[in-house]
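GntR family transcriptional regulator, pasting as requested.
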Amino acid sequence: MKPPPAYRQLRQRLIEDIAAGVYADGARLPTESELVARYGLSRQTVRRAFLDLVADGVVYRVPGRGTFASDAGRHYLRQFGSIDDLMSLSEDTTMDVAEGLHRRVDVDSASRLQLADDAVYTVAFRRLHGSDHGVPFVHTRVYLPEPVARLLSDAPEVHDGATSTSTIIGLLEPHLTDPIAEAAQWITVASADSEVASALTCPPEHPMLRVDRLYSDTVGRPVELAVSHFLPEQYSYRVTLRRSP
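Structure tokens follow.
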């Protein structure tokens, strides 16, 4: 996979430093000139990284004084506008598998995947971010139709206890005859059940942000259902909406 642009690498490095407490809330970040000298980057690259951080609410600027860390910077923040954005979670988070890929009967998920019977394949994991990718922020359970699950049967990334920077859609994409083209999304509020609470070390019944995504390929077939519970203390969700031309 091609490495991300230099400004995104710097943006992510600064986000991780803020999340790790290197820059506390209200602390001044290095100046553009200091970052240019420290990392050997162009001023334009550093400026682009700062502009993205300001837009994300991770830092704020005070004219004549500098750029300062915001409390929001301790959250994991992603801006999603495409399938590629979802796949790029592999750039800065870790997938830690709690329950490897296996078959089970689940009427609700089978129905949402438009299957003829009630059997699905499922894998459960949490994702971690921050310094050394050590802070858990989401628990996800993925459901797959059997033909799709077979494509991952030999993938070590979906076995019990596996740790990787992969995403399920990223693992699937090279093997699909028809690529993933769409993700329908539902966002609700939910409480942490025992599985989620244990994975994210939060109290049972803790308020969570629940995001369901149903991925479909270019011919409209459901490929994957992902049900995720995000810790609001560790996660911020941002979507940019634009007017139709």
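Note for the archive: The radius of gyration is 19 Å.
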